[in-house]
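Our consortium's second objective concerns turning raw sequence data into structural hypotheses that experimental partners can test. To show how far this objective has progressed, the report includes one record in full. It was chosen at random from the queue rather than selected for favorable results. The single chain below, 64 residues long, was entered without modification.
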Amino acid sequence: MPQIKDFVDKVKEDPVPSFTIDYKQGAPPVLHLFDADGNEAADPISISQWKAEHIFEFLQSKLS
């Protein structure tokens, strides 16, 4: 999944506030959204087919 690797590389260069990456070998790439109390706010979102710029746009809309 080169688009996910591209996203991870960009996050390393320009971190996204309130965002962390947790690596799980063999697991598909998903986003987990949490509320201010640390509770999961929604079902995990599969991003395996998303382009890096779409992930950034989504995160900007949710984290701002």
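The partners drew two points from this record. The beta strands are 30-31, 45-46. DSSP finds two helices and two strands in the chain. Both points have been shared with the crystallography group to help prioritize constructs.
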